[in-house]
Every structure is written in C-alpha cells, then in structure tokens.
Amino acid sequence: MSFTVNDSLLSKRYVDTKLNLVFSPPKGFNEVEKSISNTKLLDSLSGLKLEHKKVFFNKDDTALIVVSKVNETLAVKQLVKKNRSYIDKKWNKPIFSEFYSNAIRFNQFILLDDKYVVFKLMIKPNKELVEINYIIPKNNYDEAFAKRIESSLGTINRVNI
C-alpha cells in the first residue's frame, strides 16, 4: 500500500533502535510521559500483553499515539488472531486489513465508537512485534486530520533498512 506523505503535516522523527522503528508523528504531537495515558482506553484496545514504550499527545486535538512492544511469545499470525478475537468482542464492527508498506507487513484494525477513531497497527520491523495506536477523539477527526494520519503512517519504517 502506498501512502501520500506530506512532510509539512509531520513532527520530528521518532527513532527507537531497540524496536528498529522510525516514524514521524503528525504535526502537533509531542512526546510525553507514559503515565498520562488513558489506561482504561488502552486496555480496551488490545488483547495482548503490551509494554508501552512511547506516548505522543496532541493537546489541541486531545489525540494520542501509543507505541508498544508486544510481550508475548506466540508467532505473529497467532498474535494477530488473538488480538482480532479480542477486538471483535470489545468493539462494534472493527475493520481489519493486511498490507505492506516500506517492505513491512501491517495488520491494521480501524476501531470506531461514539467517542474515538482508532488506527491500531501491528508490525514487526525486527524481532519484536510492535503495536502502534493512533487514538483520535471522534469529534476532532476530519479530512484534514486523516491526511495528517496518512502522512504519518507512510513514514513508518525500519531504522536499519
């Protein structure tokens, strides 16, 4: 899959060499302490054991991006299936897709409810499975915000290409 990347819509690059992950959050998102994250919402997003590595927050839109390492030993296919089963029970009509971008396999869930639009990505840039959640309040999600998200998604890559 190909994303349109508009650099003017992006913040500075985030690099995690341990996860072999690099990407640029949308403009307006800043790194924050992990402790501010909404744990109730985060817990409803995944049926997997996660170690939250980085949280980005946009104070104007009250949107979050959470980068997490999956702390489970099952094969990727089994973990995606486990997560999908969990999400199907917790969310109404989740949308699931698989695609490749920058030679990385993405398992994407789009989750919608009356409060949030969530783009959940499961990727394996190296040995570790990584989950990235873009969490946007539904009332702040519009076409302009979608373009910012698309630009950010298009920057997700490996550090060591």
Overview of the molecule:
With 161 residues, this protein is of the alpha+beta class. The chain has one domain: Protein Transport Mog1p, Chain A (3-Layer(aba) Sandwich). It has three helices and nine strands, in the order βββαββαββββα. The protein has helices spanning 39-45, 76-90, 143-153, and strands spanning 14-16, 21-23, 30-32, 50-58, 63-70, 95-101, 104-112, 116-123, 130-137. It has a seven-stranded antiparallel beta sheet, with no helix packed on it. It has a two-stranded antiparallel sheet with strand order 1-2. A hairpin with a 3-residue loop joins strand 7 and strand 8. The mean pLDDT is 89.
Brief description of this entry?
This protein has helices at residues 39-45, 76-90, 143-153; strands spanning 14-16, 21-23, 30-32, 50-58, 63-70, 95-101, 104-112, 116-123, 130-137. It is an alpha+beta fold. It has one domain (7-13, 21-27, 42-153): Protein Transport Mog1p, Chain A (3-Layer(aba) Sandwich).
Please write the string of helix (H) and strand (E) elements.
Answer: EEEHEEHEEEEH
Uncertain stretches? none
How much beta, percentage-wise?
35-45%
Radius of gyration: 14 Å
Lateral strand order in the biggest sheet: 3-4-5-9-8-7-6
What general outline do the C-alpha atoms trace? Answer: globular
Structural class: alpha+beta
Biggest sheet statistics: 7 strands, antiparallel
Please name the CATH architecture: 3-Layer(aba) Sandwich
Mean pLDDT: 89
